[in-house]
Amino acid sequence: MTNAQKKVVILLVEGDTDETLLIERLRQLFKDKEIRFEPYRGDIFYQIDQKAKPIKKLIGDKVKEVLIKRRFNSSDILVVLHILDTDGCFVGPNNITIDTEQSGLTKYLEGCISVSSETQKGKMEERNTVRSRNIKIMKSAAYISTFSYQLYYFSRNLEHVLFNEMNPEKGSKMEKVENFLDDLTIPVEEFLNQFMPVSRSESCEDTYKASWDFISEDINSLKRATNVPLIFDHLNELR
Fold first, then answer.
1. Spatial contact of 214 and 225, defined as CB atoms under 8 Å apart
2. Please, what is the average pLDDT of the chain?
3. Which band of pLDDT confidence, cut at 50, 70 and 90, is reported for residue 42?
4. CB 155 within 8 A of CB 85
5. How far is CA 217 from CA 18, 61, 136, 158, 222, in A?
6. Is the pTM of this model over 0.90?
7. How far, CA to CA in Å, does 49 sit from each of 43, 45, 202?
8. Rounded to whole angstroms, how far apart are CA atoms 214 and 161?
């Protein structure tokens, strides 16, 4: 067992900014748990070379890698939590438009995803089909391997929620999050609460489900929303 018998909370994330945003506050509130962020730097829900593999196996294999790398025993793990960017993946083909004069292959707009060519539109439709299918599987999964599991989102991504930027510049992401935290005068979960797309019900499970129902509908995965505050609720339930 790690760190004086503390149970481990594994947080799978796409990149380092999620950890920067949340880790200090989570460790402050949940001192009885070992909080471990594990960035995998990519899109596990849509990997071109592995898109035919079952998503539960891909994520299960990732968790096994973490256990081996960190030398955890299965009994050390309290829960596996997972944060993704929706990237507008639930929008339908009618909300993917073509602008041959735009700079860049893909742009995220208020009501659509704009692409530069018919070829790119086809790729985006395929990505959305595979990605949304995999997310729907995992948002309903209570376990991954033998571990308790829940999936959370930023829509369209973390920078969209924090800064209202739908197409953030890659190079400045970390610095902007660090500056945001330096200037923040309220707990980070209170800031994120204003972008919760549904009201909390008495049941955390019902609220979690409603948050996913919202983001999966129409063009909501392009809207500024997150259910990441429910991580704090869930960990409180696990005390």
1. yes
2. 95
3. confident
4. yes
5. 25, 30, 12, 20, 10
6. yes
7. 12, 12, 42
8. 16
Question: What contacts 24+ positions apart, CB below 8 Å, involve 192-200?
Answer: 192/161, 192/226, 192/228, 192/229, 193/229, 195/161, 195/224, 195/225, 195/226, 196/225, 196/226, 196/227, 196/229, 196/230, 197/223, 197/225, 197/227, 200/233
Checking if the pLDDT of 70 tops 70, the result is yes
Are 41 and 14 in contact, with CB atoms under 8 Å apart?
yes
- Residues contacting residue 60 through CB under 8 Å, at least 6 positions apart: 144, 145
The neighbouring-strand residues paired with 37 are 11
Pairwise CA distance, residues 196 & 226, whole Å = 5
Strands (E), 49-146: 77-85, 96-98, 106-108, 113-115, 143-144
pLDDT at 110: 92
pLDDT for residue 35 is more than 50 = yes
Phi, psi of 22 (to 5 degrees): -115, -20
Residues 197-228 pLDDT 10s: 999 999 999 999 999 999 999 999 999 999 99
Angle between helices 55-70 and 118-139 (to 10 degrees): 70
CB of 196 within 8 A of CB of 228?
A: no
Question: Which pLDDT score is estimated for 50?
Answer: 80
Q: Report which residue type is found at 34.
A: E
From CA 78, how far away is CA 211, in angstroms rounded?
23
